[in-house]
Amino acid sequence: MMKSILTVCRVAAAALGLLCALVSSVYAQPTTDPLPSWNDGPAKQAIISFVKEVTDKSGAKYVEPEDRIATFDQDGTLWVEHPLYTQAEFALDRVHELAPQHPEWKQQEPFKAVLANDREAMAKFSESDWEVVLAATHAGMTTETFVEIVKQWMATAKDPRFQRLHTELVYQPMLEVMDYLRTSGFKTYIVTGGGQEFVRPYSRRVYGIPPEQVVGSSILTRYEYRDGKPVLLREPKVFFIDNNAGKAIGINLFIGKRPYAAFGNSTGDQQMEEWTAAGKGARLMMLVLHDDATREYAYGPAEGLPDTKVGTFTQALYDEAKTRGWNVISMKRDWKHFFAFEK
Amino acid sequence: MMKSILTVCRVAAAALGLLCALVSSVYAQPTTDPLPSWNDGPAKQAIISFVKEVTDKSGAKYVEPEDRIATFDQDGTLWVEHPLYTQAEFALDRVHELAPQHPEWKQQEPFKAVLANDREAMAKFSESDWEVVLAATHAGMTTETFVEIVKQWMATAKDPRFQRLHTELVYQPMLEVMDYLRTSGFKTYIVTGGGQEFVRPYSRRVYGIPPEQVVGSSILTRYEYRDGKPVLLREPKVFFIDNNAGKAIGINLFIGKRPYAAFGNSTGDQQMEEWTAAGKGARLMMLVLHDDATREYAYGPAEGLPDTKVGTFTQALYDEAKTRGWNVISMKRDWKHFFAFEK
Q1: C-alpha–C-alpha distance, residues A329 and A90, integer Å
Q2: Residue of A3, A16, A68 for testing the chain B interface, max B β-carbons within 10 Å
Q3: Cis, bond preceding A83 (omega within 30 deg of 0)
Q4: Per DSSP, what are the bridge partners of residue A218?
Q5: Mean of the pLDDT values across residues A260-286?
Q6: CA–CA gap between residue A272 and residue A248 (Å, rounded)
Q7: Residues B287-327: pLDDT tens digits?
Q8: Which residues contact A126 (CB under 8 A, 6 or more apart)?
Q9: Percentage of chain A with pLDDT > 90?
Q10: pLDDT > 80? residue B24
């Protein structure tokens, strides 16, 4: 008896729900703009058309929800990377903080230049200089301790120009794209040349992306026991570089699926875009061009913009994008707002 | 006007829905057993109590859904690993298939023993013998080609004793546990010493686990262009071994969260269990003991079971489990059914 009452009750609720859906679909107004911080133009249009195509069940380019993967570079694509990558700023701050325990650094490059705040010398640091700095500042502690250090730094360190926390310097238009894609059934990933364990502590809070959806560079860790409890010790040795070809390799290694949409901004993202483009069906390849020195920065050297060596976007990449029909986002032309705090 | 009709409509539907839920909760019968293939006993009880604890919002051991991670070893935990790991069977079949292209193998160990079907010699293969076999059979093709080879083999190759496809030899009780955990808000992962790209092609179909939730061992891949299109070429060089300490390292690397539940069966799972156990709050550590030679196999050498060298469960691990309060699943005592086809 109870069961039949329940059944009637459920059927009635379901019918009313269906009726509502019907009324709602007949009288629905155009939905609100999913990308309000974007100016109308080809970039915004490309994103919206792509989403419509892959979510249209009756269309030829429909993609099953389980295959809807979108990848985002971080530095210069999701947040400001000038004048120096945020993680490099973090490393430099750590050198200052650790200096009292390393009196020898005062006489020893590359630490000497860092401690003297010699920006000119630092701008000329080679890759191996940076590796020395990273090894000294990112290793020698457990993974748990490192996460705590990152969290504390992120909560206080400010960008020199905007005088804002780095996590406030994320691009509002890109947050909207990530939300829009997720609402459309996509799983969003960060695929960064930066440190995986550097990004994970704030990825959910800042981007709505959980740690397991952050793919990045990493150093070796060693399993050992401290007071009978296991820890993972960060070692001063590179394990994986998630940049250039490493981005395609990392996507295959960590996700095992080819993205349908990929957002980057520099030469380090070339292979991620190529790997995405090589898939069948509708694919969305986007590259952010920093061409607004007033509201943020302008650098290339593509299209005659200054070559700053940080987040390099070469003319060759620009030409590849144009030839292959990828979309270049002009920050100056395509973005109404840059940051949430501007609104 | 339309908007207010819609609102009324929705409120009415929601109210009726709520009423149904209320009627339903008042008159609800005890829910059906989530683990029907398990006999009542401490192992089944441990799983059910754990799930109740971590999902009880008012309890001290409640775990947010985003943190509910459960990891499962594959070989010997989710499916049969005797007389030889499935992936080893695959490698041996590949040697036979590739032999016509390698006439020199007839005189060259370890291939000679494989081609002669000399099981005694193969049982004595060293790790470096297996590495030679794996390099010859798992590398030298693109990732896409490898996936196709695995899929074809999985669709036809049969287990020598049960005369079933390997994917039919998954343990029904473990499928139930995975379903039960997922229904309870858990994200389930495979964490296998086997090849990540070997397991991913069938993980969703067989276990309901998508490729991105398969963590395993891997070889190097190289990004290159073929006819202008990028491919990832599998190289005969180990990149990561996801076994022993590698399981804790792999979990941190690929997931970046500590599991709340971990299921294993051999010494290779020791560190995964330890890493899980070292977290705060309720944690569920489970080890499957193969002690039923009639329905499957019996091996240890823990508890005086035969030492077969495949899926070794040492007495030291057994003692660690008992000392630390981990749960040992006796397949003989705890499992009503082993495989879906038995029912």
Answers
A1: 28
A2: A16
A3: yes
A4: A240
A5: 98
A6: 5
A7: 999 999 999 999 999 999 999 989 999 999 999 999 999 99
A8: none
A9: 89
A10: no
Rounded Cα distance between B285 and B282, Å, is: 10
Tell me how far apart the alpha carbons of residues A172 and A176 are, in angstroms, rounded to a whole number: 6
Q: Which residues pair with A285 in a beta bridge?
A: A262
Please choose, from the candidates A177, A198, A187, the residue with its C-alpha nearest in 3D space to the C-alpha of residue A75.
A198
Confidence label for A1 from pLDDT (cuts 50, 70 and 90): very low
**Residue bearing tokens 């839920």:** B21
Name the H helices within B99-167. Answer: 111-115, 119-123, 127-138, 143-154
For residue A232, the chain B residues in CB contact (below 8 A) are 248-249, 252
- Are residues B23 and A6, on separate chains, in Cβ contact within 8 Å? yes
Contact between B91 and B111 under an 8 Å Cβ cutoff? The reply is no
Cβ of B22: how many Cβ atoms within 10 Å? Answer: 11
Give the DSSP H or E segment for B239.
strand B229-240
> What is the token pair recorded at B123?
């049982």
Greatest Cα pair distance, chain A, in angstroms, is 87
CB A196 within 8 A of CB A218: yes
DSSP A194-254: EEHHHHHHHHHHHHS--GGGEEEEEEEEEEEEETTEEEEEEEEEEEE--STHHHHHHHHHH
CB contact under 8 A, B256 and A200: yes
Q: How far from B318 is each of A107, B236, B237, B247, B321, CA to CA, in Å?
A: 54, 36, 34, 19, 5
Q: Which two tokens stand for residue A320?
A: 């590849």
Tell me what the mean pLDDT of segment A190-210 comes to: 98
Contact A232 B254 (CB under 8 A): no
Average pLDDT of the residues in A187-192: 98
Asked if residues B145 and B201 have their Cβ atoms less than 8 Å apart, the reply is no
* Confidence at A343, pLDDT banded by 50, 70, 90: confident
Cross-chain residue pair B275–A211, CB shorter than 8 Å? no
Give B 204-233 residues with CB within 8 A of chain A.
204, 210-212, 214, 218, 221-223, 229-230, 232
d(CA A40, CA A34) in angstroms, rounded, equals 12
Q: Check pLDDT > 90 for residue A41.
A: yes
pTM metric for this prediction: 0.92
